[in-house]
């Protein structure tokens, strides 16, 4: 069986360091081409990636050899590009955030359904080591019943490029909020019921969000908080999870991204100094972080396309995340709690 040919749309940070790299590591996938509007970038693509350099999405969709289109483009064009690719008979993986609102999400889902093609969202942080560790602690019962969890991702300063423009879907709310909302929903595995959000835009030279706080309540009585900041020089814990038996606290980010940018994702190792701690009210102990594995996303895509496995990031879960994001935007605009 020949490998599935993949074309990546966009060769910025996500297309270069994430998608084209990880596709190249997945057995059963072949990096067939990359699209860029910039002639110099296309020269670099041919030289560095040894694949076809397309001028744009239209050229990719005309290529019958392409099986799977990966959208590493600005978030604001994901819906339009995904629908066009699906209608052209291609499978699609889109970088997160999937799109900008629930209406766009439903358009994408309808296109996947009518064309009977795969549509999957790149939620690589379901394979972060810290997320997998929290999931294990919840499933093993060490935390007890978890009814409160806080996830934070913070930094200092506005982003540049298209991620620094609100009209393109830039800002931490969309980019990182997509990860944290997805992690909250998949860890709780209970329907979200209400959403409240506060957004701030305090940068002098940028219209993207500087602060975002999303509060989600679940049908099982749990509360999840996603705290995003571009004006925090001192970070909060990445995970703070309160259970009836213990509390788990974990700082820092998964090491895979730095290792991947350096060219060897398999060298990513978290040091003991970064391990989280489990507190039971009397004592605390260090919890070794489980190894993360971003490779698993595209390996699962390959297995699914070959008919050997269900897709891990389901459309049902992706739509649930977009429903929360959509409700959060409405809440931020009105100042009211939105009931789903």
TrEMBL record:
Enzyme class: oxidoreductase
GO molecular function: nucleotide binding; scyllo-inositol dehydrogenase (NADP+) activity
UniProt name for this protein: Scyllo-inositol 2-dehydrogenase (NADP+)
Native species: Armatimonas rosea
Domain Gfo/Idh/MocA-like oxidoreductase N-terminal: 4-121
Lineage: Bacteria, Bacillati, Armatimonadota, Armatimonadia, Armatimonadales
Pfam families to which the protein is assigned, alphabetical: GFO_IDH_MocA, GFO_IDH_MocA_C3
Domain GFO/IDH/MocA-like oxidoreductase: 131-248
InterPro entries in the record: Gfo/Idh/MocA-like_OxRdtase_N, Gfo/Idh/MocA_oxidoreduct, GFO_IDH_MocA-like_dom, NAD(P)-bd_dom_sf
Domain of life: Bacteria
UniProt KW keywords: Oxidoreductase
Enzyme Commission number(s) of this protein: 1.1.1.371
